[in-house]
Design a protein that fits this description.
There is one protein chain. By secondary structure, the chain is mostly helical. The chain has 20 helices and two strands. Strand 1 and strand 2 form a beta hairpin. The two termini are 19 Å apart.
Length: 476
């Protein structure tokens, strides 16, 4: 039997673009929507400390990713890392969970486009079409979500060069606009508005509030792991070490951004008053404090750009994971097709666009449960990659590691523990005895059932090649 040819993608991602891909993915629109959820249980300082603690642990995970990404600079990231450390079965489970949740996040962003547009221009809503999860779906936001999904499907179908250029423009525009309102908050805000800095339980504990902020860190910092998905597409002048370091740089920058947003918004108005704004509290607070609808619109515009940066980069990540699984003959091989003109994973792109479109149809009611499901899936992948660092340090100590985790197996062990903690907290957070099966668990079950279907469908392709050939297809 002739050895299968290894499909490859266009080399067009430069050093700075690895930063805009990661940072742009991490900083979406959640900081505008979720601000009240951080402040209400924790208070401003509690939210900052809880989220900062979560950031530190995610950075430990990011260090593990940087080592793996520099060792195996190929498409699919975790598909390659877990294959080398644990074999085909674990590689498939990891890749499938990531591909599913990346695709779900594209749906999240498509829904968010419509929600934010409706807050900017209420007349966009249009007639109510149906309800999902008890939340109505209106024609206007649905149409905007579907159009945005079609746009990013087309953009990524036409190749990584155009997608990364759009990512650069959007990310730097976002940073410029955020500097404006964050600076205004610190210059013109009042520290007295931060009081009380903590929310305490009846027993005087601040721990529940800190935990509430802490648990959100994996979801709001997820996105650094898109860098490994496009490592194979780096330009000739971009070293694996330099690209891998951008994982840590983007994580630290994002953690600082979230802390600054929480503090600046809580300083412009008494923070408990922020909780009165049910929709987009950050924008409402700045608009009221400065009597400036223009500043509010600037925040909403920044949030809208944030949606687009995440949408674009997560779409890249989702399509590369599916492409890598297919190229490795783990699922039907047709999804590994490369466009003859654009050198893009065209079939995988269309697959992600199609599934993402189905998610957009679910509407705003699906946003909340996706946070916990994403945390569970990311936590599982993070833990396996971190554990893989430990395993490969012991089984292949001689392997070339352009970037090494500071602290070695000790740091990697802490990252494994952090990942397990995130999964536990996210899995138990939605559970209430007697309250029925949480929607999060149902969505996770759907992911596993779909994965089982693809595993069965890929039985013949998997058996068609040897493990030696599969390793070559994955690692190059």
């Amino acid at each position: 039997m002739t050895s299968p040819e290894r499909a490859s993608l266009k080399k067009a991602v430069g050093p700075g673009q690895f930063f805009t891909i990661a940072f742009g993915t991490i900083i979406g629109v959640g900081w505008v929507i979720y601000l009240g959820y951080w402040l209400e249980p924790a208070g401003p300082l509690g939210a900052v400390l809880g989220f900062a603690a979560g950031t530190v642990l995610v950075v430990l995970i990011g260090l593990c990713y940087a080592e793996m990404a520099s060792m195996f600079p190929v498409s699919g990231g975790e598909v390659a890392y877990t294959y080398e450390a644990f074999g085909t079965g674990t590689s498939f489970i990891t890749g499938w969970l990531l591909g599913f949740i990346y695709t779900a996040v594209t749906s999240w962003e498509g829904i968010a486009v419509g929600v934010l547009a409706q807050n900017l221009f209420p007349w966009i809503a249009g007639p109510r079409l149906y309800s999902v999860f008890g939340t109505p779906v209106h024609a206007g936001p649905l149409a905007l979500g579907l159009v945005s999904m079609a746009f990013f499907t087309t953009l990524n179908y036409r190749g990584v060069r155009g997608a990364t250029r759009v990512q650069d423009a959007l990310t730097y525009s976002f940073l410029a606009m955020c500097a404006l309102f964050i600076g205004a908050g610190f210059i013109f805000g009042d520290v007295a508005n931060l009081s009380p800095v903590f929310v305490r339980t009846e027993g005087g504990s601040i721990l529940p509030g800190l935990t509430a902020a802490f648990i959100t860190a994996p979801f709001f910092l997820a996105g650094f792991d898109v860098i490994p998905q496009v490592m194979e597409e780096r330009t000739a002048g971009t070293s694996p070490r330099g690209a891998a370091r951008m994982i840590v740089i983007a994580l630290v920058a994002a953690g600082v951004f979230y802390v600054l947003v929480i503090l600046s918004a809580a300083m412009v108005t008494p923070w408990r008053h922020l909780l009165d704004f049910e929709d987009l509290p950050a924008a409402r607070a700045f608009a009221e404090a400065f009597s400036s609808p223009l500043l509010s619109r600037a925040i909403l515009l920044a949030a809208f750009i944030g949606i687009l940066t995440t949408f674009n980069a997560v779409f890249m990540g989702a399509s590369r994971v599916i492409f890598a699984l297919s190229r490795a003959y783990m699922i039907p091989t047709g999804l590994a097709a490369v466009h003859p003109r654009f050198d893009s994973p065209s079939t995988a792109v269309l697959f992600v666009g199609g599934l993402g479109t189905l998610g957009v149809i679910l509407g705003e009611g699906a946003i909340g449960p996706m946070v916990n499901v994403a945390t569970i899936c990311f936590g599982i992948a993070f833990g396996l990659v971190s554990l893989g660092v430990i395993r490969l340090r012991r089984s292949r100590p001689e392997a070339t590691r352009p970037y090494k985790v500071p602290g070695g197996v000790v740091t990697a062990g802490a990252a494994v523990a952090a990942s397990a903690l995130f999964v536990y907290l996210a899995a138990t957070d939605p559970y209430e005895p007697g309250g029925g099966i949480p929607l999060e668990w149902l969505l996770l079950a759907v992911a596993l059932i779909l994965g089982g279907g693809f595993w069965v469908a890929g039985k013949k392709p998997r058996a068609a090649i040897t493990e030696e050939e599969r390793r070559r297809l994955i690692l190059g």
